[in-house]
Amino acid sequence: MNLVISFFRKLGPEILSCTYEHIYLVFFAMVMATVLALSVGIYLTRCRWPKLVSVIMGIAGSIQTIPSLALIAFIVVIFAFMGLPTIGTVPALVALVLYALLPILRNTYTGIRQVDASIIEVATGMGMKPYQILLSVELPLSLPVIMAGIRISTVWTIGVATLCALIGAGGLGDLIIKGLRSIRLDYLLAGTLPAAALALVLDWILGLIEKWLTPEGLRVGT
Amino acid sequence: MITLRHVCKIYPSGVNAVDDLSIEIAEGETLVLLGTSGSGKTTTMKMINRLIETTSGEILIDGKDIRRQDPIQLRRKIGYAIQHVGLFPHMTVAQNVAVVPRLLNWPVAEVSRQVDNLLAMVGLEPEDFRDRYPSQLSGGQRQRIGVARALAADPPVVLLDEPFGALDPITREQLQNEFVELKSKIKKTTIFVTHDVFEAVKMGDRIALLDAGRLQQLDTPVGLVENPANKFVEQFLGQHRFQLSLLTRTVQAIMPGTNEKASRPDKSIPSLHLRAKSSLIEALDTFKETRELTLPVYEQQQYIGNLEKSQLLQAITQVLGESGDAQ
Questions:
Q1: Which strands, in side-by-side order, build the sheet including B157-161?
Q2: Mean pLDDT of B36-59
Q3: What is the pTM of this model?
Protein backbone atom coordinates (compact mmCIF):
# COMPACT_ATOMS: atom_id res chain seq x y z
CA MET A 1 0.00 0.00 0.00
CA ASN A 2 2.76 2.35 1.01
CA LEU A 3 4.45 1.53 -2.22
CA VAL A 4 1.44 2.62 -4.24
CA ILE A 5 1.06 5.86 -2.27
CA SER A 6 4.70 6.81 -2.64
CA PHE A 7 4.53 5.88 -6.34
CA PHE A 8 1.71 8.34 -6.92
CA ARG A 9 3.23 10.97 -4.64
CA LYS A 10 6.40 10.94 -6.67
CA LEU A 11 5.03 10.37 -10.18
CA GLY A 12 1.43 11.56 -9.91
CA PRO A 13 1.85 15.05 -11.38
CA GLU A 14 4.07 13.73 -14.14
CA ILE A 15 1.56 10.99 -15.02
CA LEU A 16 -1.22 13.56 -15.18
CA SER A 17 0.61 15.97 -17.45
CA CYS A 18 1.84 13.16 -19.72
CA THR A 19 -1.65 11.64 -19.93
CA TYR A 20 -3.01 15.06 -20.83
CA GLU A 21 -0.44 15.45 -23.62
CA HIS A 22 -1.22 11.94 -24.79
CA ILE A 23 -4.95 12.55 -24.95
CA TYR A 24 -4.30 15.84 -26.72
CA LEU A 25 -2.25 14.11 -29.41
CA VAL A 26 -4.66 11.23 -29.88
CA PHE A 27 -7.73 13.46 -29.89
CA PHE A 28 -6.50 15.86 -32.55
CA ALA A 29 -4.99 13.08 -34.65
CA MET A 30 -8.28 11.17 -34.56
CA VAL A 31 -10.41 14.20 -35.38
CA MET A 32 -8.23 15.02 -38.39
CA ALA A 33 -7.97 11.41 -39.51
CA THR A 34 -11.73 10.91 -39.22
CA VAL A 35 -12.58 14.04 -41.18
CA LEU A 36 -10.04 13.22 -43.86
CA ALA A 37 -10.85 9.52 -44.13
CA LEU A 38 -14.63 10.11 -44.11
CA SER A 39 -14.45 12.69 -46.90
CA VAL A 40 -12.07 10.63 -49.02
CA GLY A 41 -14.07 7.46 -48.32
CA ILE A 42 -17.35 9.10 -49.29
CA TYR A 43 -15.75 10.57 -52.39
CA LEU A 44 -14.46 7.13 -53.40
CA THR A 45 -17.95 5.61 -53.19
CA ARG A 46 -19.04 8.19 -55.75
CA CYS A 47 -15.96 7.98 -57.90
CA ARG A 48 -16.61 6.48 -61.32
CA TRP A 49 -13.03 5.43 -61.74
CA PRO A 50 -12.37 2.11 -59.97
CA LYS A 51 -8.61 2.50 -60.55
CA LEU A 52 -8.50 5.54 -58.28
CA VAL A 53 -10.23 3.58 -55.53
CA SER A 54 -7.66 0.81 -55.60
CA VAL A 55 -4.78 3.30 -55.83
CA ILE A 56 -5.91 5.28 -52.78
CA MET A 57 -6.75 2.15 -50.80
CA GLY A 58 -3.34 0.80 -51.78
CA ILE A 59 -1.57 3.93 -50.53
CA ALA A 60 -3.47 3.91 -47.24
CA GLY A 61 -2.73 0.21 -46.90
CA SER A 62 0.97 0.54 -47.56
CA ILE A 63 1.34 3.33 -44.99
CA GLN A 64 0.05 0.79 -42.53
CA THR A 65 2.79 -1.68 -43.45
CA ILE A 66 5.58 0.76 -42.58
CA PRO A 67 6.68 0.12 -38.98
CA SER A 68 5.34 2.95 -36.87
CA LEU A 69 8.79 3.91 -35.62
CA ALA A 70 10.03 4.14 -39.20
CA LEU A 71 7.01 6.20 -40.27
CA ILE A 72 7.78 8.77 -37.59
CA ALA A 73 11.42 8.81 -38.66
CA PHE A 74 10.42 9.32 -42.30
CA ILE A 75 8.16 12.22 -41.42
CA VAL A 76 10.98 13.87 -39.50
CA VAL A 77 13.45 13.40 -42.35
CA ILE A 78 10.98 14.63 -44.97
CA PHE A 79 10.07 17.62 -42.78
CA ALA A 80 13.76 18.41 -42.36
CA PHE A 81 14.21 18.50 -46.15
CA MET A 82 11.20 20.77 -46.49
CA GLY A 83 12.37 23.09 -43.75
CA LEU A 84 9.40 22.30 -41.52
CA PRO A 85 9.64 21.75 -37.74
CA THR A 86 11.10 18.33 -37.03
CA ILE A 87 10.31 18.09 -33.34
CA GLY A 88 7.17 18.59 -31.31
CA THR A 89 3.48 18.17 -31.99
CA VAL A 90 3.27 18.93 -35.71
CA PRO A 91 5.31 16.03 -37.14
CA ALA A 92 3.85 13.75 -34.47
CA LEU A 93 0.29 14.61 -35.51
CA VAL A 94 1.11 14.09 -39.19
CA ALA A 95 2.48 10.63 -38.47
CA LEU A 96 -0.47 9.69 -36.27
CA VAL A 97 -3.05 10.91 -38.82
CA LEU A 98 -1.41 8.93 -41.62
CA TYR A 99 -1.36 5.87 -39.44
CA ALA A 100 -4.99 6.21 -38.37
CA LEU A 101 -6.40 6.68 -41.88
CA LEU A 102 -6.72 3.17 -43.24
CA PRO A 103 -9.28 1.53 -40.93
CA ILE A 104 -11.63 4.52 -41.15
CA LEU A 105 -11.17 4.94 -44.88
CA ARG A 106 -11.68 1.25 -45.60
CA ASN A 107 -14.71 0.96 -43.35
CA THR A 108 -16.32 4.13 -44.71
CA TYR A 109 -15.92 2.88 -48.25
CA THR A 110 -17.10 -0.67 -47.67
CA GLY A 111 -19.78 0.47 -45.20
CA ILE A 112 -21.41 2.71 -47.76
CA ARG A 113 -20.91 0.27 -50.62
CA GLN A 114 -22.64 -2.53 -48.73
CA VAL A 115 -25.86 -0.52 -48.41
CA ASP A 116 -28.38 -2.44 -50.51
CA ALA A 117 -28.40 -1.02 -54.05
CA SER A 118 -32.16 -1.33 -54.29
CA ILE A 119 -32.57 0.91 -51.24
CA ILE A 120 -30.50 3.58 -52.93
CA GLU A 121 -32.51 3.12 -56.07
CA VAL A 122 -35.83 3.46 -54.30
CA ALA A 123 -34.53 6.59 -52.54
CA THR A 124 -33.54 8.02 -55.91
CA GLY A 125 -36.86 6.98 -57.40
CA MET A 126 -38.71 8.84 -54.66
CA GLY A 127 -36.94 12.05 -55.59
CA MET A 128 -34.16 12.33 -52.99
CA LYS A 129 -31.14 14.38 -54.03
CA PRO A 130 -27.73 12.70 -53.81
CA TYR A 131 -26.78 14.59 -50.63
CA GLN A 132 -30.11 13.66 -49.04
CA ILE A 133 -29.49 10.01 -49.88
CA LEU A 134 -26.02 10.26 -48.33
CA LEU A 135 -27.16 11.94 -45.13
CA SER A 136 -30.44 10.20 -44.48
CA VAL A 137 -29.88 6.76 -46.01
CA GLU A 138 -26.28 5.80 -46.70
CA LEU A 139 -24.55 7.23 -43.61
CA PRO A 140 -27.11 6.03 -41.04
CA LEU A 141 -27.06 2.56 -42.57
CA SER A 142 -23.27 2.31 -42.69
CA LEU A 143 -22.67 3.98 -39.35
CA PRO A 144 -21.95 0.81 -37.33
CA VAL A 145 -19.25 -0.18 -39.82
CA ILE A 146 -17.69 3.30 -39.89
CA MET A 147 -17.71 3.52 -36.10
CA ALA A 148 -15.97 0.15 -35.88
CA GLY A 149 -13.20 1.59 -38.08
CA ILE A 150 -12.87 4.65 -35.83
CA ARG A 151 -12.62 2.45 -32.74
CA ILE A 152 -9.89 0.24 -34.17
CA SER A 153 -8.02 3.31 -35.32
CA THR A 154 -8.26 5.00 -31.92
CA VAL A 155 -6.87 2.01 -30.04
CA TRP A 156 -3.93 1.79 -32.48
CA THR A 157 -3.25 5.49 -32.28
CA ILE A 158 -3.03 5.41 -28.49
CA GLY A 159 -0.28 2.82 -28.81
CA VAL A 160 1.58 4.50 -31.65
CA ALA A 161 1.41 7.87 -29.87
CA THR A 162 3.80 6.60 -27.19
CA LEU A 163 6.49 6.62 -29.89
CA CYS A 164 5.95 10.33 -30.48
CA ALA A 165 7.88 11.00 -27.29
CA LEU A 166 10.95 10.20 -29.39
CA ILE A 167 10.46 13.38 -31.40
CA GLY A 168 9.64 15.58 -28.45
CA ALA A 169 5.88 15.51 -28.72
CA GLY A 170 5.52 14.41 -25.10
CA GLY A 171 2.81 12.05 -23.94
CA LEU A 172 3.03 8.84 -21.98
CA GLY A 173 5.94 7.70 -24.14
CA ASP A 174 8.11 10.13 -22.17
CA LEU A 175 7.64 8.08 -19.02
CA ILE A 176 8.26 4.79 -20.82
CA ILE A 177 11.51 6.07 -22.36
CA LYS A 178 12.61 7.40 -19.01
CA GLY A 179 11.98 3.98 -17.50
CA LEU A 180 13.94 2.34 -20.29
CA ARG A 181 16.91 4.68 -19.99
CA SER A 182 17.15 4.44 -16.22
CA ILE A 183 16.02 0.80 -15.93
CA ARG A 184 13.19 1.85 -13.61
CA LEU A 185 10.06 -0.28 -13.39
CA ASP A 186 7.98 2.47 -11.76
CA TYR A 187 8.44 4.84 -14.69
CA LEU A 188 7.69 2.05 -17.15
CA LEU A 189 4.45 1.24 -15.36
CA ALA A 190 3.61 4.93 -15.01
CA GLY A 191 3.69 5.19 -18.80
CA THR A 192 2.19 1.83 -19.72
CA LEU A 193 -0.75 1.50 -17.36
CA PRO A 194 -2.38 4.87 -18.20
CA ALA A 195 -1.92 4.12 -21.93
CA ALA A 196 -3.65 0.77 -21.57
CA ALA A 197 -6.39 2.30 -19.42
CA LEU A 198 -6.81 5.10 -21.95
CA ALA A 199 -7.30 2.57 -24.76
CA LEU A 200 -9.95 0.70 -22.78
CA VAL A 201 -11.77 3.84 -21.69
CA LEU A 202 -11.80 5.47 -25.13
CA ASP A 203 -12.95 2.24 -26.76
CA TRP A 204 -15.76 2.07 -24.24
CA ILE A 205 -16.77 5.69 -24.80
CA LEU A 206 -16.73 5.24 -28.57
CA GLY A 207 -18.82 2.11 -28.11
CA LEU A 208 -21.40 4.20 -26.28
CA ILE A 209 -21.33 6.83 -29.01
CA GLU A 210 -21.76 4.09 -31.60
CA LYS A 211 -24.77 2.72 -29.76
CA TRP A 212 -26.22 6.18 -29.41
CA LEU A 213 -25.72 7.03 -33.08
CA THR A 214 -26.85 3.67 -34.49
CA PRO A 215 -30.43 4.09 -35.72
CA GLU A 216 -32.88 2.25 -33.52
CA GLY A 217 -34.34 0.41 -36.48
CA LEU A 218 -31.03 -1.42 -37.00
CA ARG A 219 -30.86 -2.48 -33.36
CA VAL A 220 -34.31 -3.95 -32.89
CA GLY A 221 -34.51 -7.63 -33.72
CA THR A 222 -37.12 -9.31 -35.84
CA MET B 1 -52.02 10.44 -68.96
CA ILE B 2 -48.72 8.88 -69.93
CA THR B 3 -47.61 8.58 -73.52
CA LEU B 4 -44.67 6.51 -74.71
CA ARG B 5 -43.70 7.24 -78.30
CA HIS B 6 -41.22 5.00 -80.11
CA VAL B 7 -39.23 4.55 -76.91
CA CYS B 8 -35.94 2.67 -77.25
CA LYS B 9 -33.32 1.75 -74.69
CA ILE B 10 -30.01 0.45 -75.95
CA TYR B 11 -27.40 -0.21 -73.27
CA PRO B 12 -23.74 0.62 -73.96
CA SER B 13 -23.11 -3.13 -74.17
CA GLY B 14 -25.33 -3.13 -77.24
CA VAL B 15 -28.27 -4.88 -75.59
CA ASN B 16 -31.54 -3.59 -76.96
CA ALA B 17 -33.59 -3.67 -73.76
CA VAL B 18 -36.61 -1.82 -75.09
CA ASP B 19 -37.31 -1.62 -78.78
CA ASP B 20 -39.63 0.95 -80.33
CA LEU B 21 -42.31 0.87 -77.65
CA SER B 22 -45.40 3.04 -78.06
CA ILE B 23 -48.12 2.90 -75.41
CA GLU B 24 -50.71 5.35 -74.21
CA ILE B 25 -51.90 5.03 -70.64
CA ALA B 26 -55.13 6.83 -69.83
CA GLU B 27 -55.78 8.87 -66.72
CA GLY B 28 -56.70 6.56 -63.84
CA GLU B 29 -55.91 3.41 -65.81
CA THR B 30 -53.84 0.53 -64.47
CA LEU B 31 -51.50 -0.78 -67.11
CA VAL B 32 -49.65 -3.99 -66.38
CA LEU B 33 -46.26 -4.51 -67.99
CA LEU B 34 -46.04 -8.26 -68.28
CA GLY B 35 -43.11 -10.38 -69.40
CA THR B 36 -40.35 -12.75 -68.39
CA SER B 37 -37.11 -11.44 -66.95
CA GLY B 38 -35.18 -9.62 -69.63
CA SER B 39 -38.35 -8.63 -71.44
CA GLY B 40 -37.72 -4.94 -70.76
CA LYS B 41 -40.69 -4.42 -68.46
CA THR B 42 -38.72 -3.00 -65.53
CA THR B 43 -36.53 -0.93 -67.84
CA THR B 44 -39.68 0.56 -69.34
CA MET B 45 -41.00 1.45 -65.91
CA LYS B 46 -37.74 3.00 -64.78
CA MET B 47 -37.59 5.17 -67.87
CA ILE B 48 -40.81 6.83 -66.73
CA ASN B 49 -39.25 8.18 -63.51
CA ARG B 50 -35.90 8.58 -65.26
CA LEU B 51 -33.99 6.10 -63.16
CA ILE B 52 -33.00 4.95 -66.64
CA GLU B 53 -32.77 7.44 -69.50
CA THR B 54 -34.28 6.62 -72.87
CA THR B 55 -31.95 6.20 -75.83
CA SER B 56 -34.50 7.56 -78.27
CA GLY B 57 -38.19 8.26 -78.47
CA GLU B 58 -40.15 10.34 -76.01
CA ILE B 59 -42.19 9.90 -72.88
CA LEU B 60 -44.86 12.44 -72.01
CA ILE B 61 -46.75 12.81 -68.76
CA ASP B 62 -49.85 14.94 -69.24
CA GLY B 63 -48.41 16.13 -72.51
CA LYS B 64 -45.10 17.28 -71.03
CA ASP B 65 -41.85 15.68 -72.11
CA ILE B 66 -40.23 14.20 -68.99
CA ARG B 67 -36.76 14.92 -70.32
CA ARG B 68 -37.45 18.65 -70.16
CA GLN B 69 -38.24 18.35 -66.43
CA ASP B 70 -35.92 18.24 -63.46
CA PRO B 71 -35.67 14.52 -62.58
CA ILE B 72 -35.86 15.23 -58.83
CA GLN B 73 -39.11 17.19 -59.16
CA LEU B 74 -40.47 14.65 -61.64
CA ARG B 75 -39.85 11.73 -59.27
CA ARG B 76 -41.53 13.46 -56.36
CA LYS B 77 -44.72 13.50 -58.41
CA ILE B 78 -44.51 9.77 -59.17
CA GLY B 79 -45.15 7.17 -56.50
CA TYR B 80 -42.67 4.31 -56.56
CA ALA B 81 -42.66 0.94 -54.82
CA ILE B 82 -40.50 -2.10 -55.42
CA GLN B 83 -40.20 -5.72 -54.35
CA HIS B 84 -39.05 -6.71 -50.82
CA VAL B 85 -36.44 -4.32 -49.52
CA GLY B 86 -37.97 -1.03 -50.51
CA LEU B 87 -38.39 0.23 -46.94
CA PHE B 88 -35.60 2.08 -45.15
CA PRO B 89 -34.68 -0.23 -42.25
CA HIS B 90 -33.48 2.60 -40.02
CA MET B 91 -36.70 4.56 -40.22
CA THR B 92 -40.00 3.87 -38.50
CA VAL B 93 -43.10 3.06 -40.50
CA ALA B 94 -44.27 6.65 -40.12
CA GLN B 95 -40.91 8.06 -41.23
CA ASN B 96 -40.86 5.74 -44.22
CA VAL B 97 -44.30 6.78 -45.36
CA ALA B 98 -43.47 10.44 -44.75
CA VAL B 99 -40.37 10.54 -46.95
CA VAL B 100 -41.84 12.23 -50.02
CA PRO B 101 -44.20 14.62 -48.15
CA ARG B 102 -41.16 15.70 -46.13
CA LEU B 103 -39.12 16.21 -49.28
CA LEU B 104 -41.96 18.38 -50.51
CA ASN B 105 -41.87 20.36 -47.25
CA TRP B 106 -45.40 19.64 -46.16
CA PRO B 107 -46.30 21.09 -42.76
CA VAL B 108 -45.56 18.61 -39.96
CA ALA B 109 -49.16 18.28 -38.82
CA GLU B 110 -50.33 17.55 -42.34
CA VAL B 111 -47.61 14.93 -42.81
CA SER B 112 -48.64 13.03 -39.70
CA ARG B 113 -52.31 13.25 -40.62
CA GLN B 114 -51.52 11.89 -44.08
CA VAL B 115 -49.42 9.06 -42.59
CA ASP B 116 -52.32 8.00 -40.38
CA ASN B 117 -54.77 8.16 -43.28
CA LEU B 118 -52.55 6.03 -45.49
CA LEU B 119 -51.85 3.44 -42.81
CA ALA B 120 -55.58 3.12 -42.21
CA MET B 121 -56.15 2.89 -45.95
CA VAL B 122 -53.80 -0.09 -46.33
CA GLY B 123 -55.40 -1.76 -43.34
CA LEU B 124 -52.82 -1.15 -40.63
CA GLU B 125 -53.90 0.46 -37.37
CA PRO B 126 -51.88 3.75 -37.19
CA GLU B 127 -51.66 3.68 -33.37
CA ASP B 128 -50.17 0.24 -33.54
CA PHE B 129 -47.82 0.53 -36.48
CA ARG B 130 -46.67 4.14 -36.71
CA ASP B 131 -43.58 3.69 -34.54
CA ARG B 132 -42.57 0.19 -35.56
CA TYR B 133 -39.49 -0.56 -37.61
CA PRO B 134 -39.57 -2.59 -40.82
CA SER B 135 -37.75 -5.46 -39.09
CA GLN B 136 -40.72 -5.75 -36.73
CA LEU B 137 -43.21 -6.27 -39.55
CA SER B 138 -44.30 -9.31 -41.54
CA GLY B 139 -43.68 -9.46 -45.27
CA GLY B 140 -47.28 -8.57 -46.07
CA GLN B 141 -47.24 -5.61 -43.69
CA ARG B 142 -44.01 -4.33 -45.23
CA GLN B 143 -45.49 -4.48 -48.73
CA ARG B 144 -48.54 -2.56 -47.51
CA ILE B 145 -46.27 0.13 -46.10
CA GLY B 146 -44.42 0.14 -49.43
CA VAL B 147 -47.67 0.81 -51.29
CA ALA B 148 -48.73 3.41 -48.70
CA ARG B 149 -45.39 5.16 -49.11
CA ALA B 150 -45.78 5.23 -52.89
CA LEU B 151 -49.14 6.97 -52.43
CA ALA B 152 -47.95 9.28 -49.66
CA ALA B 153 -47.77 12.59 -51.48
CA ASP B 154 -50.90 11.81 -53.47
CA PRO B 155 -49.02 11.56 -56.78
CA PRO B 156 -51.05 11.39 -59.99
CA VAL B 157 -48.88 8.53 -61.28
CA VAL B 158 -47.78 5.40 -59.41
CA LEU B 159 -45.13 2.89 -60.49
CA LEU B 160 -45.19 -0.51 -58.82
CA ASP B 161 -42.40 -2.97 -59.60
CA GLU B 162 -43.57 -6.46 -58.61
CA PRO B 163 -44.83 -5.06 -55.31
CA PHE B 164 -46.21 -8.43 -54.19
CA GLY B 165 -43.45 -10.56 -55.68
CA ALA B 166 -41.79 -11.68 -52.47
CA LEU B 167 -44.89 -12.79 -50.62
CA ASP B 168 -46.32 -16.21 -49.92
CA PRO B 169 -49.29 -17.10 -52.17
CA ILE B 170 -51.96 -16.51 -49.54
CA THR B 171 -50.75 -13.10 -48.37
CA ARG B 172 -50.14 -12.25 -51.98
CA GLU B 173 -53.68 -12.95 -53.04
CA GLN B 174 -55.01 -11.03 -50.08
CA LEU B 175 -52.93 -7.98 -50.97
CA GLN B 176 -53.91 -8.23 -54.62
CA ASN B 177 -57.59 -8.19 -53.66
CA GLU B 178 -57.05 -5.24 -51.36
CA PHE B 179 -55.15 -3.42 -54.07
CA VAL B 180 -57.89 -3.98 -56.65
CA GLU B 181 -60.34 -2.48 -54.19
CA LEU B 182 -57.98 0.36 -53.31
CA LYS B 183 -57.33 1.34 -56.90
CA SER B 184 -61.03 1.50 -57.68
CA LYS B 185 -61.26 4.04 -54.84
CA ILE B 186 -58.25 6.23 -55.54
CA LYS B 187 -58.09 6.15 -59.37
CA LYS B 188 -54.41 6.76 -59.99
CA THR B 189 -52.67 6.22 -63.26
CA THR B 190 -50.75 3.10 -62.33
CA ILE B 191 -48.04 1.11 -64.03
CA PHE B 192 -47.66 -2.32 -62.54
CA VAL B 193 -44.78 -4.60 -63.46
CA THR B 194 -45.13 -8.35 -63.01
CA HIS B 195 -44.05 -11.64 -64.55
CA ASP B 196 -47.13 -13.41 -63.23
CA VAL B 197 -49.87 -13.65 -65.85
CA PHE B 198 -52.55 -14.32 -63.21
CA GLU B 199 -51.56 -11.22 -61.31
CA ALA B 200 -51.59 -9.25 -64.56
CA VAL B 201 -55.09 -10.41 -65.43
CA LYS B 202 -56.29 -9.57 -61.96
CA MET B 203 -54.72 -6.14 -61.54
CA GLY B 204 -54.69 -4.66 -65.00
CA ASP B 205 -57.24 -2.63 -66.91
CA ARG B 206 -54.95 -3.36 -69.81
CA ILE B 207 -51.90 -5.55 -70.19
CA ALA B 208 -48.83 -4.87 -72.29
CA LEU B 209 -47.05 -8.15 -72.90
CA LEU B 210 -43.38 -7.64 -73.70
CA ASP B 211 -40.75 -9.97 -75.00
CA ALA B 212 -37.12 -9.07 -75.65
CA GLY B 213 -38.00 -5.39 -75.48
CA ARG B 214 -40.79 -5.59 -78.02
CA LEU B 215 -44.47 -5.11 -77.43
CA GLN B 216 -46.22 -8.36 -78.33
CA GLN B 217 -49.75 -7.41 -77.45
CA LEU B 218 -51.50 -4.50 -75.76
CA ASP B 219 -54.98 -5.49 -74.75
CA THR B 220 -57.52 -5.88 -71.99
CA PRO B 221 -57.16 -9.05 -69.91
CA VAL B 222 -60.07 -10.64 -71.80
CA GLY B 223 -58.62 -9.61 -75.14
CA LEU B 224 -55.22 -11.01 -74.30
CA VAL B 225 -56.59 -14.34 -73.14
CA GLU B 226 -59.27 -14.75 -75.80
CA ASN B 227 -57.39 -13.42 -78.83
CA PRO B 228 -53.65 -13.89 -78.52
CA ALA B 229 -52.04 -11.74 -81.19
CA ASN B 230 -49.26 -14.14 -82.12
CA LYS B 231 -47.45 -17.38 -81.41
CA PHE B 232 -45.44 -15.85 -78.58
CA VAL B 233 -48.51 -14.68 -76.70
CA GLU B 234 -50.07 -18.12 -77.13
CA GLN B 235 -46.97 -19.77 -75.77
CA PHE B 236 -46.74 -17.32 -72.90
CA LEU B 237 -50.29 -18.08 -71.84
CA GLY B 238 -49.58 -21.75 -72.50
CA GLN B 239 -51.40 -24.27 -70.39
CA HIS B 240 -52.87 -21.50 -68.24
CA ARG B 241 -55.29 -20.42 -70.93
CA PHE B 242 -58.23 -22.40 -69.64
CA GLN B 243 -57.80 -21.07 -66.12
CA LEU B 244 -57.21 -17.54 -67.39
CA SER B 245 -60.37 -17.64 -69.47
CA LEU B 246 -62.36 -18.60 -66.42
CA LEU B 247 -60.80 -15.66 -64.58
CA THR B 248 -61.30 -13.08 -67.30
CA ARG B 249 -64.66 -14.07 -68.75
CA THR B 250 -67.46 -12.47 -66.80
CA VAL B 251 -70.89 -13.73 -65.92
CA GLN B 252 -72.30 -10.96 -68.08
CA ALA B 253 -70.55 -12.36 -71.14
CA ILE B 254 -72.26 -15.75 -70.87
CA MET B 255 -75.70 -14.47 -69.87
CA PRO B 256 -78.38 -15.60 -72.29
CA GLY B 257 -79.79 -12.53 -74.00
CA THR B 258 -82.70 -11.46 -71.82
CA ASN B 259 -84.83 -8.42 -72.08
CA GLU B 260 -86.46 -8.57 -68.71
CA LYS B 261 -84.26 -5.78 -67.40
CA ALA B 262 -85.73 -4.11 -64.36
CA SER B 263 -88.76 -6.29 -64.76
CA ARG B 264 -88.54 -7.46 -61.20
CA PRO B 265 -90.70 -5.35 -59.00
CA ASP B 266 -88.82 -5.66 -55.72
CA LYS B 267 -85.81 -3.38 -55.65
CA SER B 268 -83.98 -5.04 -52.80
CA ILE B 269 -81.11 -7.31 -53.80
CA PRO B 270 -81.42 -10.82 -52.38
CA SER B 271 -78.45 -11.97 -50.34
CA LEU B 272 -77.83 -14.80 -52.79
CA HIS B 273 -76.90 -13.26 -56.09
CA LEU B 274 -74.15 -12.99 -58.71
CA ARG B 275 -72.48 -9.82 -59.87
CA ALA B 276 -72.34 -9.25 -63.61
CA LYS B 277 -68.64 -8.43 -63.40
CA SER B 278 -67.77 -11.61 -61.49
CA SER B 279 -65.52 -14.10 -63.22
CA LEU B 280 -66.75 -17.57 -64.11
CA ILE B 281 -64.60 -18.99 -61.30
CA GLU B 282 -66.26 -16.73 -58.76
CA ALA B 283 -69.67 -17.66 -60.11
CA LEU B 284 -68.83 -21.35 -59.86
CA ASP B 285 -67.73 -20.85 -56.25
CA THR B 286 -70.98 -19.08 -55.45
CA PHE B 287 -73.03 -21.92 -56.93
CA LYS B 288 -71.01 -24.42 -54.91
CA GLU B 289 -71.40 -22.54 -51.67
CA THR B 290 -75.10 -21.80 -52.00
CA ARG B 291 -76.08 -25.12 -53.56
CA GLU B 292 -78.63 -23.19 -55.65
CA LEU B 293 -79.43 -24.16 -59.23
CA THR B 294 -80.41 -20.68 -60.35
CA LEU B 295 -79.13 -17.33 -59.16
CA PRO B 296 -80.17 -13.79 -60.02
CA VAL B 297 -77.51 -11.58 -61.61
CA TYR B 298 -77.10 -7.92 -60.75
CA GLU B 299 -75.08 -5.20 -62.35
CA GLN B 300 -74.51 -2.78 -59.52
CA GLN B 301 -78.12 -2.23 -58.31
CA GLN B 302 -79.75 -3.42 -61.51
CA TYR B 303 -81.21 -6.88 -61.96
CA ILE B 304 -80.25 -8.21 -65.37
CA GLY B 305 -81.51 -11.78 -65.39
CA ASN B 306 -81.08 -15.25 -63.98
CA LEU B 307 -78.21 -17.62 -64.52
CA GLU B 308 -78.64 -21.36 -64.22
CA LYS B 309 -75.89 -23.57 -62.98
CA SER B 310 -76.17 -25.72 -66.08
CA GLN B 311 -75.63 -22.67 -68.29
CA LEU B 312 -72.48 -21.83 -66.34
CA LEU B 313 -71.15 -25.36 -66.62
CA GLN B 314 -71.90 -25.39 -70.31
CA ALA B 315 -69.98 -22.14 -70.75
CA ILE B 316 -67.03 -23.57 -68.85
CA THR B 317 -67.04 -26.71 -70.99
CA GLN B 318 -67.05 -24.50 -74.04
CA VAL B 319 -64.03 -22.56 -72.72
CA LEU B 320 -62.25 -25.85 -72.10
CA GLY B 321 -62.96 -26.87 -75.68
CA GLU B 322 -61.63 -23.57 -77.06
CA SER B 323 -58.42 -23.67 -75.09
CA GLY B 324 -58.01 -27.30 -76.12
CA ASP B 325 -58.26 -26.32 -79.78
CA ALA B 326 -55.65 -23.65 -79.34
CA GLN B 327 -52.98 -26.01 -78.19
A1: B78-82, B157-161, B189-194, B30-34, B206-211, B214-219
A2: 89
A3: 0.78
